[in-house]
Specification:
By secondary structure, the chain is an alpha/beta fold. Helix content is 44%, strand content 15%. It has eleven helices and nine strands. The strands form two sheets. A six-stranded mixed beta sheet has the order 1-2-3-5-7-9, sandwiched between helices. Strands 4-6-8 form a three-stranded parallel beta sheet. The longest helix has 16 residues. It is globular.
Length: 239
């Protein structure tokens, strides 16, 4: 179960459970509910605040829970709507957000990371990837718009049409992340960045984000259809 720690004004959201070192932190209905409840707790706080998300071990998030999807094809479209709602919520959250990518970040996990204000990636290990082209899964208008708001068109084309796996240096060059750090320094760098911006928390920041990303938020809110016919049974190889 995802959980919160706190460092002064900065909340640290761990995507996996306290006793789980290498959880894949996959998106399924229960996990989305748990993340949403933690975000409720963060938003209910008062005063300056920032949010860092991270995980432990080999994975930040390997994306959608494809096994759940195969077992619940009749619910897949509605669930994708919920995932996109979570991306939208993060994109417009009225406090600064930083993703500290300590491990593999794939698919829906990568889109979730891109919805943060800032991304810092481990320099020496782990990949960030949008593997849809390799598993027969297309992308909704909302997720494409989300990534397009972050990347140069050439980088967007490569990321989505090739399924390239970006290591830290490549992700930095492509504009997928803002910085890289060693494993030992990654979290502290992310927390420091969130601390520096914690004073911006408030409705003004939320309003600015809503205006900046109005198109993305609108398309993320568009209902999904047809996803149940895609190949949910194959998963990208990870190492």
């Amino acid at each position: 179960m995802p959980y919160l720690d706190r460092d002064g004004d900065v909340f640290i959201l761990y995507l996996g459970g306290r006793s789980e070192v290498d959880s894949q932190n996959q998106f399924n209905p229960d996990w989305v509910d748990e993340i949403s409840a933690v975000l409720d707790e963060v938003e209910a706080s008062t005063g300056p605040a920032g949010l860092v998300t991270t995980a432990t071990g080999k994975f930040y998030s390997t994306g959608a829970d494809l096994s759940w999807g195969m077992d619940n094809l009749d619910q897949v479209n509605a669930f994708i709507d919920r995932m996109q709602g979570l991306f939208a919520r993060m994109l417009q959250l009225p406090l600064p957000t930083v993703a500290a990518l300590q491990g593999h970040t794939f698919g829906a996990g990568a889109f979730w990371a891109m919805a943060h204000d800032y991304r810092i990636m481990r320099a020496d290990r782990g990949f960030l990837c949008f593997p849809g082209v390799h598993i027969g899964a297309t992308y909704s208008a909302g997720t494409v718009d989300l990534l397009a708001a972050r990347l140069h068109p050439d980088a967007l084309h490569q990321a989505l049409t090739t399924g390239h796996r970006y290591g830290g240096d490549q992700a930095l060059t492509a504009g997928l992340v803002h910085a890289t750090a060693s494993a030992d320094e990654l979290l502290s760098h992310a927390v420091d960045r969130a601390h520096r911006l914690a004073g911006t928390r408030g409705p003004t920041l939320g309003a600015i984000k809503n205006t900046m990303y109005a198109r993305v938020l609108a398309t993320l809110g568009s209902p999904m259809s047809g996803a149940e016919y895609q190949q949910w049974s194959a998963q990208p190889a990870m190492s």
